[in-house]
Amino acid sequence: SQAILTPHALYISGQLPALPSGELPAGSSMGHKTSLCIANLRAILEAAGSDLSRVVKTTVFLTDMKNFAEVNEEYEKHFGVGGAPKPARSCVAVHQLPMGVEVEIECVALPGGGVKNQEVGDEELERRAKG
Q: Which residues are identified as catalytic?
């Protein structure tokens, strides 16, 4: 499935740097490839009534960690903007990705409506854990 919507979360499968036509642009920069992955996430989020500000967790898959800085530079243009907290993120180096791409991004978001994600500091996490 491309995405699963539950009452509490929207789980979006990894998105490749593909154009809406499904074509993978050849020779583009890692920044451009990252922006395409995020554009595809955004399209699914919006179709489900959510948006990037509701993303609470992302996982970025890279075939070469040397590309992390360029991917991160583009990523920061889309997440944590307008005062929204940046989602929790993992970045994982993998041997290869589908269709030979170099980057893939998946996410978990809050569904549309209700409360937006809120950043919770270590002290607040500890307080909540103690009940």
A: 91
